[in-house]
Amino acid sequence: GQLTCEPLVCPPLPASCNRHLPKGQCCPICQNETTVEEKDQDETSGCQMAGQYFPPSSNWHPYLPPHGFDVCTTCTCHANDLRVTCSRTTCPTLNCDERVAVKPDKKACCKVCPTSLLDPNAPPQPPREIQGEEGVTESPEAINEEILAQGGCKYPVGGPYHNGQQWHPRLYSHGEVKCVKCRCKDGKVKCERKRCTKWSCNDECCMAQCKRRRRNIRRHH
């Protein structure tokens, strides 16, 4: 019985996009440079979808209440016949557990594995040196080989990790991902997202799940 309001988040537009804000709309859309300016347009010269007008050659993400814009679907108003077609983005196959995968940002369509977001230009980790019993300094390569020989795990950033060691993966755009924990076990890395209960809504890792749960409850009542 409660009414909640949330700000509308507009979908991302490519940098090369000729932005156009249709009359009465909240979010801009892409418009071909050859499209006639809005002041010279009649609504019969464009496309209609869900009661909204879109200029010829424009592209947009459809709005699907109560979820918002479907950023995985792009619709186009064809200038030659004013026909609307929509195509859905096919996300690439993930090389990790889907529960661990994250979206690079809130407006992204496809999830990616944490390791695929590592900054290729990040400076390498400083070499570690360990003094042996006889005072001989072991090379980083020898140390890493010893860790792996004892059941350790390779990992793009910060590795290798010792057998049984746990850590939070790092993303170059977000830093450490506190909501995901990885563990090395007998040479294999397994990452899991923090499990949330209905009592943990104040936890920053669980807020998004709580919001989705509340929306589902409202839709079914």
From TrEMBL:
Entries under SMART domains matching the protein: VWC
Domain VWFC, residue spans: 45-114
Sample GO molecular function, one term: BMP binding
Gene Ontology BP, a term: dorsal/ventral pattern formation
GO cellular component: extracellular space
InterPro entries: Chordin-like_regulators, VWF_dom
Full protein name: Dorsal-ventral patterning protein Sog
Organism of origin: Lygus hesperus (Western plant bug)
Gene: sog_0
